[in-house]
Task: structure prediction
Amino acid sequence: MTFVRNAWYVASWAHDLTTEPQAETILSENVVLWRGEDGKVRAAENVCPHRFLPLSQGRVQGNELQCGYHGLTFDGDGVCVDAPTQDAPPANCRIRSYPVHENMGMVWIWMGDPALADTADIYDLPEYHQDGWGVGFGDALEVEANYLLLCDNLCDPTHVNYVHPTTLGNRDGINAPITHSDTPWGVVTERFTPNATPTGFVEAVGDYAGKVDMWQRYLMYLPSVSIIDFGATAAGTGSHESGGEGRIQVFSCHFMTPITGTRTIDRWLHVRNYQADDALAGDEISTQFRIAFAEDKDILQAVQAEEVRHEGRVKIGLDLDASAGLFRLKLNRMIRAEAAEAARESAEAAE
Result:
């Protein structure tokens, strides 16, 4: 399985990372994360080059990571700085390190060329930091499916009527028109359902006496970040852009990290424009989302299993696949560009 490597992926919730080494697998690579006594996060490949014991079975000493077998100690750059049984470590005793950065309550890791890592490229939702918006942290949902299946799902507003009938779906929206557009950072898929019966979610958190206007905007960022902007106003009073009587707006944020070709972790959180300081309001959203995301998980895992069983069989396409198809096309271009650059560098090195 080929992945985009020159990109930022979420490696952990920031609150989960302590001075205990934490093992993660990201893009099929085994990584160890740790937080030094200075509070700074570090990451390196999860192996001691001496006897290959995973460094996650060691311990943090100050800001450095010590192997649990013979005490070799590595700094955040992957350099061995201490070999207790000899005067100095071997000159070639080092491991790969990875750039990391904390933002939006998560630890982000760069899996590609460190020289290209720019923290300005990390996704950031402005509302996450603004007054008047409440933040709720969800889970790290493990899905036994390729991350592209999750990306397909998050380019597709149409599935909610069938997969999430009690929470996010609504029969009034089954034939609502879908549009999508290309962007420099990915693809946007939109659906607006005017003068409709509220969905189960909107009914649970809103206070509407009648019909509502609802929007779903699926913002899919390369290579695997999805921001779903959805909400409602009393019918005829506003839109996703502004205004609206009883306006409810929620950003459902999904940060999908490919573990292997058939396993993904979706760390999700949400940001809301109402009851910002009420933790119970955030808990209510999380409860609704856990129901919906468990439904997604069941569907996607079943699809993954059948894709393996029907390998080589051509799928039937529908009009609703257009935005997911565009996203995959753009992702494949990134993968091919990285492969071409790697081949060029390899050829130059061989000359």
User: Anything to note?
Assistant: The first helix runs from residue 147 to 153. Helices lie at 147-153, 160-163, 200-205, 279-309, 322-350. The two ends are 29 Å apart (CA to CA). The CA atoms of residues 161 and 169 lie 4 Å apart.
